[in-house]
Write a structure and sequence with these properties.
Length: about 425
């Protein structure tokens, strides 16, 4: 005898689709008297009856992201997986079109071996689920499909387009954010060695979007105005920090009070000179000033209409990379300065301040995590060249984000090599 369950709460039982065997799940749904289980028990043929629009029950379940009916239908009647609606779509096509990632995860990851025969079914237009995922620009669904090695990545639809062709066509030319969905999809296909259809080079412009110089010029001008403010602020702050050293400098009276037997330091010498954290502050602040100044100069050229548009696009990317490096270097200088001022009196507070400052790197962590997820999605298609490209690409992204810290701590490491009277 089952117990009553509110209909809106049935979906909580679908979480077992990632952990429990299929038969256990169907027995559970029968035990709680799920309405679909009762209907199928009374009339099993209803699982294969379509409505007036050509949709079968499994299509309706996929369109509403209802996992319990999908699990019940596909477990008891595996033939439902290959049913097509009036447009030739399987339930996987419908789930991708509706952007229901749970259904796609269930098919491609949890039960990937059971439904491998229907992953590459093409609809009436020749599109597979992978084609539709690219058209919709859903990165999460695309990653699920890419993780399944049974998904073919070079099939052509009836327009003669492979997934690579669709991805190229969706990526907008010119200056755009590098982590847009379509750019990430194109990068994953490239790493997986996906192939475009055979095209004549003189016809490529018919398939790929052209660059609109007027639109790009306006975007670059707006970008230069906004980012230029940030680069000038960082340059100003680092310039001021160079003349307001943490802890101050020695006055003439302080220099005269130096210990006897040693040469007095000249007036104006920083109080914390020759310390490790002070050297780190100077190097970080100098690097931040250099990067922000170069970014400012690059942005000046970005706003000049006489410069070729493609050169301006490259300068925009260059200036943005320099500004990010300047900001990260400035954060390091801030942490070194706090440590210098607090270490002798409150070591715990000094360490806590440095740790809290590191939270400013979370923007870089977001880039790293996105790159990591996209990279691992292609690992199922193992090949020596693919693995080498994946590892190299991930390492390049890490270096792109955090190279200022390699420079800072690399120069600090020379303290143990070069002669000098250093303090801890």
């Amino acid at each position: 005898m089952g117990f009553p369950v509110v209909a809106s709460n049935y979906e909580r039982f679908s979480c077992g689709s990632y952990f429990l065997p299929r038969r256990w799940l169907t027995k559970l749904y029968e035990w709680i008297d799920h309405p679909l289980s009762q209907l199928l028990k009374a009339d099993p043929s209803s699982a294969f009856q379509s409505d007036i629009g050509g949709l079968f029950p499994v299509h309706v379940a996929a369109s509403t992201d209802s996992m319990v009916p999908i699990i019940t239908l596909l477990t008891n009647y595996p033939g439902c997986a290959g049913l097509r609606d009036a447009m030739g779509r399987t339930f996987l096509h419908v789930a991708v079109k509706k952007r229901h990632v749970r259904v796609v995860q269930f098919v491609c990851l949890r039960w990937r071996h059971s439904f491998k025969s229907m992953l590459n079914i093409q609809d009436n237009k020749g599109n597979t689920a992978l084609h539709l995922a690219i058209m919709e620009g859903d990165v999460d669904i695309f990653r699920c499909l890419m993780r399944n090695k049974y998904v073919h990545i070079n099939l052509q639809n009836k327009d003669g387009k492979t997934p690579m062709d669709l991805a190229h066509g969706k990526v907008q030319s010119g200056f755009y954010f590098g982590l847009t969905a379509h750019r990430r999809i194109l990068e994953m296909l490239t790493l997986a060695n996906a192939l475009p259809a055979n095209r004549r080079r003189d016809q490529l412009n018919e398939y790929y979007p052209c660059l609109s110089e007027k639109e790009e010029s306006q975007k670059i001008t707006d970008f230069a105005q906004i980012v230029g403010i940030g680069s000038v602020l960082v340059a100003t702050a680092t310039f001021a920090a160079a003349f307001t050293m943490p802890g101050g400098v020695l006055s003439p009276d302080d220099a005269e009070k130096s210990s006897p037997g040693s040469a007095p330091p000249p007036a104006g010498t920083p109080v914390f000179a020759r310390r490790f954290a002070f050297d780190g502050f100077v190097i970080s602040n100098t690097l931040a000033f250099i990067c922000s100044t170069l970014a400012t100069f690059s942005l000046v050229y970005c706003g000049v209409a006489a410069v070729h548009i493609r050169r301006r696009i490259k300068l925009v990317s260059f200036s943005l990379a320099l500004l990010l490096c300047a900001a990260r270097s400035f954060c390091a200088a801030f942490a070194f300065a706090l440590y210098l001022l607090l270490a002798k009196v409150e070591m715990g507070t000094a360490i806590a301040a440095c740790v809290m400052t590191s939270l400013a790197l979370l923007d870089g962590a977001w880039f790293v995590m996105a790159s990591f997820h996209d990279t691992t999605a292609v690992l199922s298609r193992r090949a020596p060249t693919t693995l080498l490209r994946l590892g190299t690409g991930f390492l390049v992204n890490i270096l792109y984000l955090f190279w200022p810290y390699l420079v800072i701590f690399g120069l600090l490491a020379t303290r143990n090599i070069l002669p000098g009277d250093y303090l801890p």
